[in-house]
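quick one before i forget lol
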Amino acid sequence: MKFGKAKARWVYGFGVGHADGNAGMKDLLGGKGANLAEMSNLGLPVPPGFTLSTEVCAHYYANDHAYPDGLLAEVKKALRRVEKIAGAKFGDPKNPLLLSVRSGGRASMPGMMDTVLNIGLNDATAERLAELSGDKRFAYDTYRRFLQMYGNVVLGVPHHLFEEILELYKEEHGHTLDTDLSAEDWVAVTGAFQRKIEETLDAPFPQDPHAQVWGAIGAVFASWMNPRATIYRRLHDIPEDWGTAVNVQAMVFGNMGEDCATGVAFTRNPATGGKEFYGEFLINAQGEDVVAGIRTPQPLAKRAQDMAGGDKRPSLEEAMPDVFAQLLAIRTELESHYRDMQDIEFTVQKKKLWMLQTRNGKRTIHAALKIAVDMSEEGLITHEEAIRRIDPAALDQLLHPTLDPETPQEVLATGLPASPGAASGAIVFTAAEAGIEAGRGKDVILVRVETSPEDIQGMHAAVGILTTRGGLTSHAAVVARGMGRPCVSGAGEIRLDEAAGEMRIRGRLFKRGDVITIDGANGRVLAGQVPMRRPELSGDFVTLMRWADGIRRLGVRANAETPQDAATARRFGAEGIGLCRTEHMFFDTGRILAVREMILAKDAEARRKALAKLRPMQRDDFAEIFRIMAGLPVTIRLLDPPLHEFLPKTGPEIEELAKSIGAEAVDVKARAEQLREVNPMLGHRGCRLGITYPEIYEMQAQAIFEAATLVAKETGAAIVPEIMIPLVATKEEFDFLKAVVDKVADGIAAASGVRITYRVGTMIELPRAALLAGQIARSAEFFSFGTNDLTQTTFGISRDDAGGFLKSYLDKGLLRKDPFATLDVEGVGELIRIAAERGRAARGNLHLGICGEHGGDPASVAFCERIGLDYVSCSPYRVPIARLAAAHAALKAS
């Protein structure tokens, strides 16, 4: 151990009615430590212990893994208090105290960091534990657990080496379950474990309890930077510099006999949000047995057991009614105190209940909505607090499909409904396979006996997770719910052979790559790919979104190219269309020939002839969109991409086009070559097309005004199109093309007798346009920030090519976020802020919004609120996310 500079305090005690901290000290004590202190303050039965603060972790990493000076003395003092309360002494061979060492960061990271239980056991104390407990089997079961956990977590001996020893021993002695092994069996296994450790490390297992506890503390601090924790933090946006606290606590034992138990419980159902006590337990077990899937847990409540059906083992309510009644009272007290659904861990030692943890429970978005709305209506929290409780990004999970009930379905096996939603995909058996195949664009189902924290990246890559062991509180279930992945756990009929890449279900063989479907809502595994249905958004979602809409300031529009997109956007609550990309209409198979004929035209007259074929098609599209949006604003971007994108690429395609338009193939090929550019995204596109070929923008403007006139006459509604000129760099470009639009508008008004009110604005997507926004705003009536292109041109990075190096930047901490996913506030955001300020200085009523992919990113929406934009626009399916994110931003600003 190394020690460095001193500080006033590094260690905080808790347990048995006393605590040096409270729930408000989460930054210092971590979530686990703060809540252990809080439960102690509430007078709940918490085993005594102490917390090494997150400041120790910061010191550890800032000082070459050295501990701060003074820590050793503080730990010794805190340990003496634990010994006094427990009536035992750590390291004493006559009356040994055993300890657990657990991590606990500010944010919950279930299973990502390390834990070591039963610290203080050695050959002498194991024998003494057998004498004191009167149960040698318990003592050596506990010792083998310690050897395995410490050997793996602290000493680095691979976990599978211990598992192989145990499985081989059970096979040789005719045992099926761990609970079948006798005291003598466990003595033999512990001996084998110690020999394996010495053989692997060329050193014996450490017998000194004090060396053990400091080894465990160091391992837990080190686990903050292990790969699975690093990946989890990146996925869940948890800062690396937060660090973890370490909790050292007196052991209580759920594996001392049939009057002992351990369990995990939720104060409400984490899958549905129902107000029911939900959880699982095991008699004569330690905590990892419940979540690791080694044994199938039993339900807490009698009602849950009856609902499960077929399981005849007693619930906790039946097996230990007094303990269950005490747990129910604690459930009510904790939920009322924290005003949120709690995830609690407990142990029963000789019929005495001990509370090991409480934290805000992870839940599906369906459950989160129900819990937030219910608690608000129960008076536990306000509407504003209910809104804050829902992560806007998590709303994406609401769009999880469900199986089409009208389609025939072949059920292969049934497990537990661990996380709702349905998914179809190719079978993979390892996390690495999942990552590789998903990277190739495949949907995959990760199938495992049970998942572990090392599988986190594969679980994220998969569209669904299936395990053959484990319960509703297993690692797979908890992590899948947090990620919004459908999961079926405990499908015990399935037999896996990972090495062969096979699984068998009721005699049927399925191989790696075969497609299956899982239904996490009811625990079914089905053959093949089953058609899905998108869910309807109603109930608690509608209630919460109504509350959010009453709070937010920012408008929310949708990016939509087709009438179908527009209808979807309205269904999700869009307040207009912020970006209608007209080029997408050009790619329709019924129109592409006319587009190509226009591109290949030799002069403006020939182009106008081809464009005349396109105008009624575009007019009809715009008219339908105007009808669907029913008077809401519709922003239409004039043609943007390079013309060569519309031309055929291969020889046969060129031949076919030439034949269809009566041209020579050689001329078509020559024109395609003439249009080809070295760097097309910075080439002949956007407003540059309109300046070179004004007739293209003339046609589009005609189609827009004809459609607006038609729908205005039909409906009597005020149709106000917003025409957006793309990729402007100068005021002169904008003025030239605005004149084209105005001329068309005047002509159609004169011919129809109907004058349509309209606005002409521009998309700010070049740094020069942002810096000269004051000039452009003298002519433009609105700005829409095209953050995709503005990010590309500010960074000088092609979004299409960035995948090859951006990951390295993120891994090395050179960028905290992918700038194409979350707006780069310091650079791109600063340009937007400058453009907004200079634009509004020139035109006080300038309307401002963003229409890039960032419009649906909650962090980017918060930035838009801070600088006072009027609206954000995003894909239709991200509209609910943007609505809720806008409410969050407004609450934060208030």
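fyi Confidence is low (pLDDT under 50) at residues 304-309.
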